[in-house]
Amino acid sequence: MKIEDCEVGMKVRNCWCGDITKGDEEGIISNIEDGYINFEDRGDIKFYPEYFKPANKFEVGDEVIWQNDKVKIWGIRYDDEIKEYEYAIEDFLENVGRTIVFESELSPLKKKDELEVGDKFRSVGNRTIKVLDKKFDELHNEMVYFGKCENGLISVWSEYEVDEIIYE
């Protein structure tokens, strides 16, 4: 990677460098000075940017969201001209089949405690619930959702009762 491609706050991956140990393959640039980059957790040690490349957010096999569809990544390539990762994706419903998209077009799957108003999920008995509101239950240390079933029943569900998040 060239020094002009580096930005403070950028997440990078180690290509080869003796001072980075196993488990420390990635880091966030904290300073750029005199043609070198620094990392917060490395003190005053300076690194050549040529030993690093931008880190990708996702890996092969990850399930992600693309255009409100749940898709699976089966390939990754870094585009040097655009300076962004491209991902080969495949959807589960055969709506799209296989295609290539940029990293900025993808989002990670939501976690059970990250649902928002309007999101839908399946719960016990394969019921589909639309989230009307959410609150954090401090007593049980969990997110609870106020939701409406398909049959009109309004009730409360904990994050542990979310079996599957529905992406539309």
3D structure, described in words:
This protein has strands at 11-14, 26-33, 36-39, 52-54, 63-66, 69-79, 84-91, 98-102, 106-108, 120-123, 127-137, 142-149, 154-158, 164-166. The strands form three sheets. The chain has a five-stranded antiparallel beta sheet, with no helix packed on it. The protein has three domains: 3-54; 63-108; 120-166. The protein has 168 residues and is mostly beta strands. β5 and β6 (69-79) form a beta hairpin. It is elongated. It has no helices and 14 strands.
As laid out across the biggest beta sheet, the strand order is 8-7-6-5-9
- State mean pLDDT (0 to 100 scale): 85
Total E-strand runs: 14
Tally of separate helices: 0
Number of self-contained structural domains: 3
Strand content: over 45%
Radius of gyration, taken over Cα atoms and rounded to an integer in Å:
21 Å
Most strands sheet: 5 strands, antiparallel
In terms of quaternary structure, the protein is: single chain
Separation of the first and last Cα atoms: 38 Å
Please tell me what the overall shape is.
elongated
Q: Could you say which structural class the secondary elements and strand pairing correspond to?
A: mainly beta
Percent range of helical residues: under 10%
Quick rundown:
The chain has no helices and 14 strands. By secondary structure, it is mainly β.
Labels describing this entry:
48% strand; 168 residues; five-stranded antiparallel β-sheet; mainly beta; single chain
Topology record:
Layout lengths: L10 E4 L11 E8 L2 E4 L12 E3 L8 E4 L2 E11 L4 E8 L6 E5 L3 E3 L11 E4 L3 E11 L4 E8 L4 E5 L5 E3 L2
Antiparallel strand pairs: 1-2, 1-4, 2-3, 5-6, 5-9, 6-7, 7-8, 10-11, 10-14, 11-12, 12-13
